[in-house]
Structure formats: C-alpha cells, structure tokens
Write a structure and sequence with these properties.
Helix content: over 70%
Number of helices: 2
Largest sheet: none
Oligomer: single chain
Distance between the termini: 110 Å
Shape: rod-shaped
Length: about 140
C-alpha cells in the first residue's frame, strides 16, 4: 500500500507562514538587541583607545621633559668638572710656588715680617681654594 500524501489547505499554509513571521520578528528583535550591545561595546572601546592615546601623549611629553633635564644636568656636570679641574690646577700651581718660595727663603722663622705677612695671605688664599675644591667634591 502506498503512503498517503498529506494535503495542506491554504489556511494551514497561511497559519504556518504567520507562525514563521512571528519567529522571524523575534529573531530580528534579538539581533537588534545584539546590535545595541555591540554599539555600547564599540563606544567603550573608543573611550579606552582615546585614553590610551592621551596617555601615550602624556608619557612622551614627560619623557621629553626628563630628557631636557638630563641634558641640563649633564651640562652642569661638565661645567663643574671643568671648574674642578681649574681649581685643582690652581691649587697645584700655588703649592708649587709656595715650595719654591720656601726653598729660596729658608725656614719660615728666618723670614722678615713682610714676607711672613705675605705668606700668611697666600696661605689664606690657598685655604680658600681648598675649601672651594672640597665644596665641589662634596656636591652630589
């Protein structure tokens, strides 16, 4: 016996299509909700990206500022090194001159008062130079 064919009326087809239309509308509503969620996520990503870009600009600005400060510090360090070298040379020249004078004049007890006075003045100046050198050496 052959299988019986099902027959559908137009009313049944219409009802089935209407049912499918309802299901499609529910799917469309769900997709619309998903679209709204994606728009919110997109806005959040945009905010995060903008914050990252602003942070990058801030970091680059701060790095440039620090680079300038480092360059200034290096310049000051070079200046101090030159000053220190100059003071060191001055110190050695003065001490060498004092030794030569001491050899020519003999023991300090034998010097005339005018020479002792001059030597005291030179010693004060030398002490001042030594203090300046120590001050430069003790700087961080």
């Amino acid at each position: 016996m052959p299988a019986k064919k099902k027959t559908a009326t137009l009313q049944q087809v219409y009802e089935k299509l209407t049912e499918h239309d309802g299901q499609f509308e529910k799917v469309f509503e769900k997709l619309t909700e998903h679209d709204k969620q994606f728009e919110k996520i997109d806005e959040q990503f945009t905010k995060v990206i903008n914050r990252i870009l602003n942070l990058e600009v801030t970091v680059k600005t701060e790095i440039a500022r620090l680079d300038k400060r480092i360059d200034d510090l290096l310049g000051n360090l070079d200046k101090f090194a030159k000053d220190f070298e100059s003071l060191t040379q001055e110190y050695h020249a003065i001490t060498a001159a004092l030794r030569r004078i001491e050899r020519v004049l003999g023991a300090p007890e034998q010097w005339p008062e005018s020479i002792r006075s001059e030597m005291d003045s030179v010693q004060r100046r030398l002490s001042s130079v030594e203090e300046r050198i120590l001050a430069l050496e003790s700087r961080p």
